[in-house]
Amino acid sequence: LAFGKFAGRAGLIDFLHGLGQRYLSLGYSTPFLSLGQSHMYPSLAAAKAAVIAIGEEIATFGLPSGICPIVFVFTGTGNVSQGAQEIFKLLPHSFVDAGKLPELSAARSLSQHPQSSKRVFQLYGCVVSSRDMVTPKDPTRCFNKADYYAHPEHYKPVFHERIAPYASAIVNCMYWERRFPRLLSIDQLQQLMKNGCPLVGISDITCDIGGSIEFVNKSTSIERPFFRYDPCTNSCHDDMEGNGVICLAVDILPTEFSKEASQHFGDILSKFVARLASAKELLELPSHLRKACIAHAGRLTSLYEYIPRMRKTIIELPPAPTNLLPDKKYNSLVSLSGHLFDKFLINEALDIIETAGGSFHLIRCDVGQSIDDMSYSELEVGADDTATLDKIIDSLTSLANAHGDPNARREIELSLKIGKVNECGTDDSMAKEGSKVLILGAGRVCRPAAEFLASYSNIFSSSAYDHDIDQIHVIVASLYQKDAEETIDGIRNATAAQLDVADIKNLSNLVSQVEVVVSLLPASFHAAIARVCIEMKKHLVTASYVDESMSKLEQSAEGAGVTILCEMGLDPGIDHMMSMKMIDEAHSRKGKIKSFTSF
Fold first, then answer.
1. What kind of fold does domain 435-568 have according to CATH?
2. For the Alanine dehydrogenase/pyridine nucleotide transhydrogenase NAD(H)-binding domain, which residue ranges apply (predicted)?
3. pLDDT (tens digit, 9 = 90+) per residue, 153-171?
């Protein structure tokens, strides 16, 4: 009962899609560039047809000699690997044994000779297993699979020596545990890159974060499936340009073929339904089915009782972020970090709060992406009196300190902030004034801008524990109040305002309340808005071209210390941003800009 083959299929299609973009950034146009991601096709059959089409293009026109031979290395032989190979086999290809990889490398040297323009009309695949990845530490012994699984400490990794130096792409499909040697470490990749390894990317379909491939240290989303890892600086980047390798690490790949995957899963699951439906008690079920049961007899099972308690606080969230626990006189902000869910510590924490007669409101929750990652939750805990609140805090502290044993491994860290609620139900000690941005105009461009700004602290937090970043409160102002209200519907940190920008008094009042103004109005309004911003010493961003009336305000803006950033829309904003990106990259490499021409 698994989705492995669907993960393999989607993972390779998505990787081919990214490979086209990566090769383009390196200066090579390839047929991969025309392939979409798996979820862009209405069915698995349609996606396969698209792969076949680019395969025909490769067979007809070939691939640039500068990147050939392109070698795909598949780790493992299970369902995931089978699914990935199924897609790979739709392209013109040849499979080679691991021992033949050095010969392909020699062919690469010839194909990349300065005088060579020969194109290559196929890809190469190599399927490797554990015997290709490790070797006994004792040179007198031979590899034995059973012995390796029983005593992995007796073996050392050799994948980085025997396989990786010849791979263009590594498709990681194998099961791995921490007791086994890593497939590829950060140090090994750094050395490979220094030696001129042709590796372009990793498709980590198994998505073991920080696992067999050490530098795949975060998961990615279907919307943004890749990150670029630069081994020289040991850093991750969200673009496709620059040094390093691209990494795909999506942990929900089968959902890209939701119809076929659901049908497959349902057909197999139906074989278990009768036993599940007829069981009167959970104890009648085998262990694997019992632990998989989220609900039984109309109730959540014990392992999942925390879910409605946490959801309840979100459902009851009031429109404004203040007075979250109006029925409690005293409250404190409690931050919990640790193995909250895999060790069920969140259950214990909520039990402590409720058993003592307190209540809580979930403010934030970030779940760790691997078994080693810690999760983070931020709760506002309330009580009717300080004695009860103190008792709750003491109990949570005991949980955090592993019941008072300083030598015990701390599974959860607890930081507390206590404040007294005044009669109005607000906690002055907890109030934290964030930045405010005024968006003028409520057209179609406004909604995504408001959503992005309102989620600023979530987007730019470097980790789940970087929770001191201010949230941005967005004010959307429009000539018609209704338009502004519809625009911010569902955005928590946003409010609507009615404003006629011709009314300078009201415009000045709104501008005075914020740090930055974003004008999404027609260009003819910008000069008047800019003059108000200069007077109020507030920064301004516009999406329109600079006209003469705006240019005349340059000295006034400089004198007031105000930044007016114009032309930040799609056109010509993209041109400006891409140009500055190239200029900054050149400067970072100690280069000099001798000329710049924009077409």
1. Rossmann fold (3.40.50)
2. 50-249
3. 999 999 999 999 999 999 9
